[in-house]
Every structure is written in C-alpha cells, then in structure tokens.
Amino acid sequence: MRDLKNYKGSVSIFITLTIITIQSLLFFLTWNLVYNDEMRYSPFYNKGLILLVLIYAIMYITFSNVYGGYKVGYLRVSDIIYSQIVSLVFVNIITYAQVSLMDRRLLNPLAFILMTIVQVFCTVIWAYTSNRFYFKVFPPINIAIVFGNKNVDSFIDKMGKRWDKYKICKTVDVGMGIEAVMAEIEGYDGVVIYDVESFTRNRILKECYKKSISVYMTPKISDIIIGSSDEVHLFDTPLFLSKNTGMSYEQKFLKRAIDIIASLVLIILTSPIMLLVAVSIKLYDKGPVLFKQNRLTIDNKIFEIYKFRSMIIEAEKDGIPLMASKDDDRITKIGKVIRKIRFDELPQLFNVLIGDMSLVGPRPERPEIASAYIEIIPEFEFRTKVKAGLTGYAQIMGKYNTRAYDKLKLDMMYIEKFSLLLDLKILLMTFKYLFTPSNEESTEGFDSSELSAEYECSVTKKD
C-alpha cells in the first residue's frame, strides 16, 4: 500500500477534474439551450461563451475549495455532498444575478433551478462513487498510537469515528522507553504521537522519518508558533525567525477598513431582521432587548459586548458567571430560535463598527473566566494579541465539546497564520455553517465548567 500512496495526488486530481467537468458542462448546456437566445442585449457566442463558462468554473472551483467539496478520502461523504451543494447554490445565485444585471431584467430562473437539481443529483452519484473508488485503492491505514501521561481514551474515540481512514491496531505507552516503542510500532503505516513531551517526541519522529513511517502528532503551542516562522539565511547556518509582533501596520489598516465597510453593509442588510428580533423579545416578556456584558479584546482591553437577550431577565442575578448549556432552562422560547440561527449575535456588528471587535478573530471571553484559565493555561493570554472576532478559526474548525486546550490551539493557529485571505475563507466558511443542520455542534467560546486545573495542567506543563 505504501507504493500506492505516491499516487494519491493523481487520483485526487482525476476525481476533482471529473466533477468540475460535469458541473461546467451542465452550465454550458443550460446557458446554450435556454439563456443565450433569451438575452436581449448580450448573447454570448463562441469566445464569449467560453469565457462565461470559464468564469463559472473558476467560481465553482473557488467555493468548493474553500468548503472542502473536493476532499474525497478526507471528509465524510455527507460532508462532501453538503459542501458541494452549498458551493453550487452560491455560484448559481451569483451567476444568475450577474447575467440578469447584464440583460437589465430578471431572467426566468426556472432553468437555473432545474440545473441546480441535476447538479446536486450528479454530485451525490459522484461523491459516493469517488469515495468507494478512493478507499478501494487506498484502504484505511494501520496505525499505532503512542501516548504520554494524559488519558488517551477520548482521543481514541475521536479517531475511531474515522474508521474509513484509520484502523487503530495498537496503543503504546511512551513510558516503555524509546527502544521498546520503536519495536512496537515497527511495520505500521502510520504513527500518532499524542501528548508526548518534546524530547521523546522528537526522537520518535526522527526514527519514523528514518523508516519512512508517516507521523501524526498533536501540536504544542510552541510548535504552532515555530510553524509560522520565516526562514533566514544570513550566513551558512539556517535560522528560523519568529517575529512574535502580530500584524503589520498595513495588515491592521486593511483589516480595519474591511471591518468598517463590511459591518456597515451588513448592518444595513440585516436591519429589518434586527428590528423584527428586537420587537419579538420586547413583546415576549417586556424585558430589555439587548444583553450587555464585559469581554476582553486586543491587549486585554475590556469592552461591552452586545447581543440580543436570549435568556430570562436576571439570568445571573446571583452575580456568578454561568455559561449557557445546551438545554439551559434560562433560555426563552424566542431565545432558542435566535440562538439556533445565530441572530442573537447580530448586534455585535456594532461592536465591529466601533472598533471593539473584528469580523474574524478569537471569540471574546469574560475577564473572570479568562483569568481563571490563565491560572491553569498561561498561554491563554496569547489570544488577546489580536482583536476579538465575531467569528473565528476555532468556531469553524471546532465543535461544541472541543476541549478548551484544543480551542486555544485553533485560536493560536489563526493568530500565527493570519492573512486577509484566511479571514475571507473563515467568513465564507461561516456562511456555510450558519446553514449546517448540525451547527449546534460548532464551538462558541470557553466554558467555565471546563476549568479543571488537574486536567489542563497535565497538558500545559509539557509545552
């Protein structure tokens, strides 16, 4: 199987090109048979039609790449199908709006709707067929998990859910010693290094490199920081430069400009929705419409965050900060609805507009909860090297029950990888997850109930 691994890239390209060709061809046929003759001002023929199909294909490729619609062999089939459907809907709506503007009238959308239905049908067939073919050629790899001091059971449960990709054959306690560990993992396709201190982990990594064994490992905070370093060649000794200064002035300027423009546009577009929500909350129990609370943003500055109130009046009347749980009885009927579709977050657009927050960044945390986390995870304070965000990397990549330490790692990955393109990708991913049926699994922030010094310190000390 190791010989076949070298062909994974070629197989993935073939699978991707197949669906791109199918979807582009369906658009070409729809346009050529229906809309080209119907348009009054700008019919496309020959080179013009080729250009139009090319633009459609580029948009489709872009959206599908962002949403993971081509990740056969990586994502579950259901995730691939959903990503493809979201991509097709967005691209077809944009294309329909574009050609309607060009013709200065609303074209009949029926053909576009029928085309989308056929495209979805083709997507389902393609996804299942490609997935079966991929795993026929590349069956699940046999792996061994090398673990340290921390309980490995929950991690095994997570990996076990991806039985289509991994077959967990053995778990090895690193306490056995490096020689015994290497003897135990001999012959496996891959090794997962989980919660092993850096010195021992690096020895195992080098041995696996020598024997051409694939290695997966859970990163430490220091690994994430080093991963964003620049290569420096001032003389014949290689250097890694970790600047640790955050965003440049140009990045801050552009990010702030985008925040102002985008928040203004979104406030205008969502103002009818916000008005409807505000009236509904007021009529429900005559209480305040907005919920205000102190949160932390860049450089540990405290600001007042705005949300539509989704809980009963005086939900924290005893003064003890309590995070909302999944079935919290303090949440009102109106609150359940607006939380489900994330409309309770809309007032934070005003936080973005005035500069307290950014559209993208780590979710803002309460000062008291942040202080408690810093006591047991000192690196938690790194989250405020950038502005807090309306959405973030941890919210997109994490889930409702993601461990606090893993959420922190995801936030650090965003801070270290920051770029405007990454922000755009996160925003596009956010739109996808807003319409995901299981979006209640997405992660919100850090729960005070997760605080466990004994649990977290066992992880943190190794960093």
In short:
One of its GO terms (molecular function) is phosphotransferase activity, for other substituted phosphate groups. With 463 residues, the protein is α/β, with parallel strands linked by helices.
List the uncertain runs. Answer: 453-462
Oligomer: single chain
Strand order of the largest sheet: 2-1-3-4
The separation of the N and C termini measures 35 Å
Structural class call reads alpha/beta
**What is the number of strand segments?**
10
Total DSSP helices: 17
Sheet of most strands: 4 strands, parallel
InterPro entries: Bact_transf (IPR003362), EPS_sugar_tfrase (IPR017475)
GO molecular function, one term: phosphotransferase activity, for other substituted phosphate groups
Keywords: Membrane, Transferase, Transmembrane, Transmembrane helix
Pfam families: Bac_transf
Give a description of the structure.
This protein has helices at residues 2-5, 8-38, 47-67, 77-103, 110-137, 153-160, 178-184, 198-210, 221-227, 249-285, 333-340, 348-354, 367-376, 393-397, 404-417, 420-434, 453-460, and strands spanning 141-147, 166-173, 190-194, 214-217, 230-232, 239-241, 290-296, 302-308, 358-360, 389-391. It is globular. The chain is built from 17 helices and ten strands. The model is unreliable at 453-462 (pLDDT under 50). Strand 5 (230-232) and strand 6 (239-241) form a beta hairpin. The chain folds into three domains: 2-137, no CATH class; 141-218, Rossmann fold, CATH 3.40.50; 249-460, no CATH class. It is of the alpha/beta class.
